[in-house]
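HUMAN: Mind sharing a backbone?

ASSISTANT:
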Amino acid sequence: MKVLTYIKEKAGEFTSNFNHFYLIPLFGFICWYTLFLALVGIWCVRGNQSYVAYDEFVKPLPLERIGAIEVPVFFCIFIFIHAIIFCISMYLEFYHRKIGKLIKFAKPHLQTRLAYASLVFGFIAQCFFVIQAVRSTVLIKQRKRAETHYAIFLAVFAILVLVSLALNFVNYYIMGQYYRQYVNGERWNKFTNSFLLKVIWLIVTIVLAVTTCVFYVTGKAKPSRILEWAFHFWYGLLLAFWTYDLYPITELKALREKANGTHEESTTRKLINKMSWSHHKTFTGVRESVIEVSSNLEIGSSSSSPDSPGIDYMANYPGIHH
């Protein structure tokens, strides 16, 4: 019991100062590239085979075929882990914005609907991803061709996951524009930066996916498979973006400033000084409420800022968020 109590206390200390949700997509990022590099390494160590026994005559092989032939259990486990982490990462961001652990949505009704739709599409997409991986592995081990089913399931997965991510990215655009106009005035705040990075990632992903499919359909197996490798490598960067989204940069900076005795002005008061009162005058009593927040909060009581994940300063004054 003492051990459990000690662990609970330490866990509380670990999570009380700032958020650690970023560790989940970071773990997924590590798992994805571990799988990618492991499959490439296994194929190279085995002599860059073409696996004639499995009717594979063109090199390089698709990563999915390498995994299904060489390490089927390892391959399926990592695909399942990725699917779980993908869904959890998307849900965690939504849930913690909802409860105020992260900056709340600027337009709650619209953004909540976008988040729900993104979660549904993402969950269904990952189900297709897992099903196609397991089914393809079974067929390949039975020495049966799985090209048709593989292409269909992978295409459905790609379409659904791109729709899911597009909806998720729109939420970041809305947040970035809101905080630029009404809160901190920064054009390149964290939400906007994240949105632009993700849009670039999404465009490149679509180009890779479409080009791979075109080569595949036209019978150009070698360039199709090379691009398939590039697609899998590029896809993993998504988890790096989610790690960036959830990493408490400003909270850590504020904690260091507090420890060094250099935190001269509370983050909340800085926020208030930057706010446009012309925007907030449309809400009855907002000015007085914000002044009250400023006077009541002590330095260090909250270490987040509006352009990065953290505690929502105005959680008790919902008018500001709409």
Summary: The chain has two domains: 25-247, 251-321. The first helix runs from residue 2 to 16. Confidence is low (pLDDT under 50) at residues 271-322. Residues 251-321 form one domain.
